[in-house]
Amino acid sequence: MNPEQQSVPLPGQLLLPGMPPAPDVAEDGVIPGLALPCSALPGLDGPGLHRLRADDPELAAVAAALAALDPDGTLMARAIRRAFDMLLDGQHTGRYRWDQLHKTEKTHAGTLVEINLQRALKLPDGTTLDYTIAGADVDCKFSQKMGGWMIPPEAVGRLLLLVRASDDEGTWSAGLVRAVEGRLRPGGNRDSKRALNDEGRSSVLWLHARAPLAENALLRLNERAVVSVFAPASGQQRVNELFRRALGMRVSRTVVATVAMQDDYMKRVRDGGGARDQLRAEGIVIFGDYAGDQALAVALGLPRPGPGEFVSARLIRLRDGASTLGELRADARFVRLDGADWALASPGDQVEPAPTLPR
What we know:
This protein is an alpha+beta fold. The chain has helices spanning about 5, 45-55, 55-70, 75-90, 90-95, 105, 110-120, 200, 215-220, 225-230, 235-245, 255-260, 275-280, 290-300; strands at about 15-20, 40, 130-135, 135-145, 160-165, 170-180, 205-210, 250, 285, 310-320, 320-325, 335, 340-345. It has two domains: about 5-210, 3-Layer(aba) Sandwich (ECO RV Endonuclease, Chain A); about 215-345, Winged helix-like DNA-binding domain superfamily/Winged helix DNA-binding domain (Arc Repressor Mutant, subunit A, Orthogonal Bundle). Helix content is about 30%, strand content about 20%. The strands form three sheets. Strands 8, 9, 10, 11, 12 and 13 form a six-stranded antiparallel β-sheet that branches. A five-stranded mixed β-sheet has the order 3-4-5-6-7. The radius of gyration is 23 Å and the shape is elongated.
C-alpha cells in the first residue's frame, strides 16, 4: 500500500470525548457547533465508555449495537447517499444540488434518511419512536446543519440518533444523545418541537464525525465545466463531456444518470458505442469497478473506483524509457497495456489514442 492509500480516511469512525484526536477532525479537536472535543475510539472500550455505561447504560447499549451492525459507518454512509440521490432524482430531473430542491421536497429529507438507515441496518420499528435498537426506542433526526435537529414532545427524555450530512461539504456525522429537559431550549416551534441547547449539543456521543460522503462529482466541478457538461442536446454527448471534464474524479452511476437523463444511461458509458469507445481517440480511458480496472487506477495514483463508480483519465504512451512529456520523473507511475507503458498525461501533452483496457 502506498502512502496515498494509507492516508485515505475510513467512511466513519467511532468517536467519544476524551480520546486522541481523529485525523479527520479539526486541529483543535472540536466539531463545529459542539462544545466538547470529539476523538476516535478504537473499539468499544475505554474509560469514557465505562463512565457512559454507568451514567446511561441504555445509550451505551445502543452505541454498542450500532457499532456492531456497522463498525466503520459504510452502511450508514451509503444510506445517506441513497437518500440524497432519491430526493434529487437526477435521472428524471437533471438536479444535483440541494438548493435545486423545492422547499416541500427538503422537508422530506429527514424521512428518507430515516427510512434508508432503517433498511440498511435492518432495524425493527420502535414502539412509539422510529427504531428499536438494543431493546430501546430511538428517534432518528436529520439536519443539513449542525445543531438543526428539532425534537418533538414525544421524544423528550428518550434517545435520539442525530444525523447531519452535507452534499456540498461531502461529509456526514451521526451521534446519540438523550433528550432530557436540561439539554433542550425552552422555546419551541408551532409543533412544540425544540432544539438542543449548548449542553445538549456538547452531550452528543459522536459515533461518526465528519466522515466522507460518497462524492457527487458534479459538485466538485467548477460552474463553467458543469455548464459544458449539460450543454449538448444528446445524452451520449453529455456523458462524454462529463468524463472529459471529471478526469481523476470518482463518478457514480447516479451522476451518469443525472447527466444522461435516459433510462439506458449505463449504455452511454460501456464499450460498444458508449463513452469508453468514443473517448479512446482522445486518449481517455474510463476505469470501472472491475478488479482489474481498480488495480490499474491505483497503480496510476488515481482514486480507486468503488462499487458503481468510474474514474476517467487521459493517458500518454512512454517510448524507449522516455516520454513525450519530457524527462520522466523517477517517481512517475505507469502501467503496461497493449504491450506498451502508459502514464497519466499532462494538459500540454500530445493527444494519442488510448489503449483498450483488458476485460
